[in-house]
Amino acid sequence: TSSEREALLLEANLVKQYQPPMNTLLKDDKSFPYLSISTREEFPRLLIVRRPRRDGRSILFGPYTSAREARSVQHLLADTFRLRRCARLPKEACLYYHLKVCSAPCIGAIGPAEYRATLDRVGEILRGRGEPVGPTIEAEMRAAADRQEFERAALLRDALAGLGALGERQSVIGPGTGRADVLALAFSQDPATLRVAVGLLHVVDGEVRGTEPHLLEIPADDLPDPGETLRQFLAQYYGGRLELPRRIYVHGPRPAGIDSTVDELFASRGIEVQFHPTGRYASLGRLAERLARASVDQVVARPAPREVLLALQSLLELPTIPNRIEGIDISIFQGSNAVGSLVVFERGAPKKSEYRRFRIRSVEGTNDFAMVAEVVRRRFLRRVAEQEILPDLLLIDGGRGQLGSALSSLAALGLAEQIPTIGLAKREEEIYEPDRAEPRRPNPNSPPMLLLRAVRDEAHRFAVTYHRTRRRIRMREEFERADR
Fold first, then answer.
1. How far apart are CA 181 and CA 204, in angstroms?
2. Where's the UVR domain (predicted)?
3. Fewer CB within 10 Å, N side or C side of the chain?
């Protein structure tokens, strides 16, 4: 997406569609608010709607990610341009007219033509055109603050933010009808392979409901042209599908020789295929192209696993390449059902067959340090006895305290010098090491740090999953005892 606002809108649509279990904030049935001007009223009002109709009876502006922003813009424009507020026109002027924030079309104080001209100005402002009103609103906001009219200043601040949001190009959501797919291609060539990515957007009623990046790898001695690649993708992706969108928009010019494929796949089924779309779908086409380009660049720029491990060895000054990394985490809630987890990464990839779970036995309460010490002791006590392979790096989810507890257990087993051990704190992504007074703070998005974060996050996920299982079992046992 091209802005944080577009990303939030797309995320909300996907959460409402797929209902992911871990998301609780966006799963309700509310949709984002729009500002709407009715075209059927003689003196139209500026309204807030959450489920806009696509029947052409109103002009929509938005959406807004905050209802407060939408209300602030509505109140500001209605007051400034003295727009009608009443659902039904009264027979006499209401209080808004006497407060000089309504032009009173109810008593004929303004005619339809003049009112429409005023409303056209409002529409231009909401479209981000016309004379900018931001500086005027900002000046009035500062003046209200100087007069200590803080409620008025807050209203103007929110309205200013809402008007600023309208200046952003909204390529993610807009009014429309039916289902459509928007796709674009991106190419990147290296000496061995030609990587081709297809960015695909699924649009329903003008809203992007899903994205699909498709990455294709083609041998370098059989390089197809863009037209052939597009033909193959259309045939493979749409050829066997029972349900198809009403329209397919392809970002870019129409390749030579594509007409036969389009006719064979789509014409007989009434599907319109349009190349190089204009208007709203042109911006969606550029978004699909960015999706495809990001997919290609991510694969091309992604270092090989060995390169990442070598970089990690250099970063931590390890004696050997960390081909085997083990991560440990603790999960506890309100002092009960404490559990520990251990995950294993070999050559940069998870090895789930060697994951282990631990019920905390010797620690009561919320002593996280003692729990780490217990898990480390139990993990390596048997490995020493059975002379099993030791990790090249042990990662503890936590800071200086958790690292010290792990080192104490390793020292008791005579392993403190044999197993390089670090702690990785979540908030600042700091690396704690035994022989360094200050933590390292490398780039959190560098390949070595991404690997360490993946190990830490996987250990956390595995621990939390086991902890929830233990809680469910305990609650069921308590219910069964209560029923006896």
1. 9
2. 131-166
3. C
